[in-house]
Amino acid sequence: MPKLTQADLAPLNQTFDERTPQELLRWAKQVFGDRLAALSAMQMAGSVVCHMMSQLQLNSPVLFVDTGVNFAETLETRDRIAADYGLNVITLQPDLTMTEQTEKYGVLYLTVEGQQQCCDMRKTAPLLKARGQFDGLIGSLRRAEGGKRDRCPILSVDPPMNCVRINPLANFDNEQMQAYIAEHNVIVNPLHYQGFATISCNRCTTPVLPNEPKRAGRWRHLGPWSVYCGINPTDVDGGTGPSVELSQDLIDRIFGRVTDFAI
Ligand code: SF4
After folding, report:
1. pLDDT tens profile 232-248
2. Architecture label for domain 3-251
3. Which of 82, 12, 23, 4 has its CA nearest to residue 47?
4. pTM of the prediction?
C-alpha cells in the first residue's frame, strides 16, 4: 500500500493556511467522501466545527468518546448538537467501566504513569475501534490554544488510526471563534461559562483562574507533568510518525492529481 508522510503534506499545508474553515471542510468531504468523520469532545471549538458541518450539510458522522466519567453537561451538549444540528453522533466507549477498571488496576489517574494508561484505555483505545472505517478525521485543534498546538498543521498523518487528520480551525483565532459563536448562536458546553477553559473527564478537569494557562485545569492534581491525553497524535512528541498507508487513488485525490476540485 502506498505511503503518505507528514513531509508529503507540507506543500499542501502551506497552501491551506490561506483557506477558510468552510473551504477546508468542503475539500475534506470532496476528497474523503463517505470515509470522512469528525472527532469531537464537545468542547467549544468542536461545537463550532459541528455547526459548520451542519451548515455545509457534509453528512459525515461525529465520533465522541464517552469515557464513562464525562461531565453531565458534556453529554447534554453531545445530545443537543446531535438533535439541533441533525448530526449522526457516534459514541465510542472503553471496554471496562470506570468501576471495573479501578477494581482491576486501581485508581490510575492519581499518578503520572497511571494517567497515561487510563487515557490510553478510556480515550485512545475506544477511538481505535473505529480504525479502518475512515481515511479522514476532522478535529478542532487551534494554534491559538498555544502549548503543543501552537504550530498544529491543518493536515497531519495519524499512524495509529491510519488516516489523515484535518484541523480546519487551526488558524481560527480567539476573536474569530467568539464572533462565529455569537453570530450563529452556537451550542456551547455550559462548563465553558463556569471557568472551564478546556473540558475532559470529571476526575481530571477543574476550572482555571483568569491568569492561568488554559490547560492548567487538566490533571491539576499531577502538577505540570501531564497536559495532554494523547488522543491527538500532534500533541505527542514524534506523534506525527513517519507515514500512513492509503490507496494511490486517495493520495492522488488529496493532492488534486486526478480530479479538478482541488481548492
Ligand atoms: S482524563 Fe483522567 S479519568 Fe479521563 S481517561 Fe484520562 S486519566 Fe482517565
Report:
1. 888 876 545 579 999 99
2. 3-Layer(aba) Sandwich (3.40)
3. 82
4. 0.94
